[in-house]
Amino acid sequence: MSETKYDVVGIGNAIVDIIAQSEDEFLRRESIHKGSMTLIDADRAKQLFEKMGPTTTVSGGSVANTAAGIAGLGGKAAYIGKVFKDHLGAGFAHDMKALGIHYPTIAAETGAPTACCIILVTPDGQRSMNTFLGASTDFSVGDVDEATIAASQIVYLEGYLFDKPPAQEAFYHAVKLAKKHNRKVALSLSDGFCVDRHRADFHALLKEGVDILFANEVEATALYQKNSLEELLVLAAADCPIVAITRSEKGSMILSQGKTFKVAAEPVAKVVDTTGAGDASTAGFLYGLTHDFDLPSCGRVAAICAAEVISHIGPRPQTNLKKLLESKMPTAFKKAS
Question: Would you give the DSSP letter of residue 269?
């Protein structure tokens, strides 16, 4: 593989997260499916915003959060995702660039406003996401920056972005460009309901040339329609050279070349908010992979990053991840540096 400027370029929905703590009764009253992501329109977003409690607003989006995690670990990240030329869009672009993330996407001047996600966090730390996709759904082939893909070791695709045909076409185009420049492709399944909508298309995309698959146990079960963990692991391993499946407090499982590695979850004093846990986990894994860690060590970095994120409100790290990793994995960190 030729020399690259970035470890990872992520392609996904550029979203601003609006987060508030909530009781379960509010979810029931508003018919919100706890622990999952629901697509909503602009009117529903406005309605929920007016009813929810005090909020915290941060730039988000699944793969954007992963890019932020990679940058926090000291890695080099790039991101491609569409925003509108409005206040939220300008804030999103500023936040990405302030983290040192290369963000080449030009804001749209026509169409829907910048996407937002209303996230309600219940006392048990579960997050229920209500997403207005806005400008992010207008993502198309023209937004895929070949120069950035050519300059990145891994192209990381967000399953959430896969809803509209132009975005699906853009995914295949990104995979084609990655293969043209001898880059690896990673895919996140994102959400069980997302898998239900696009199961056949995700299978086709895997066959197109995905090298690394990220999923939690629910998403993997939805993709392969097998309730047995052993069965779905066999099927996943046959589809992809590297598969990483997270299992919440049970840790994670990594499959590659006929081997299975089990990685324990990192202990957490209290789970405050699970928003962004999978994104942080993926950031740790991809950082390790692009810095020559072995797969079990990649899993350990992933667990450390996920534990940091679920210990506070919000989907992005609030601790210096680079120092955290140095303290917990000094030998591996020294090698990466």
Answer: S
Mode of pairing for the β-strands spanning 242-246 and 184-188: unpaired
Please enumerate in sequence order all residues whose Cβ is within 8 A of that of 123, keeping only pairs 6 or more positions apart, or say none: 21, 23, 24
List pLDDT tens digits, range 48-84: 999 999 998 888 899 999 999 999 999 999 999 999 9
Residues in the chain: 337
DSSP summary character for residue 114? P
In the 8-state DSSP scheme, what is residue 266?
P
**First-to-last C-alpha distance (Å) of the chain:** 20
* Residues β-bridged to residue 154: 8, 184
Kind and range of the H or E run holding 229? helix 229-239
Q: Please, is 180 exposed, middle or buried when counting C-beta atoms within 10 Å of its C-beta (0-12, 13-18, 19+)? A: exposed
Residue 148 φ/ψ, nearest 5 degrees: -70, -40
pLDDT digits (tens, 9 = 90+) for 113-143: 999 999 999 999 888 999 999 999 899 999 9
For residue 252, the 8-state DSSP code is E
Contact between 206 and 180 under an 8 Å Cβ cutoff? The reply is no
> Whole-model pTM?
0.90
Q: Are 125 and 310 in contact (CB under 8 A)?
A: yes
Tokens of 143: 């937004």
CA–CA separation, 265 and 310 (whole Å): 12
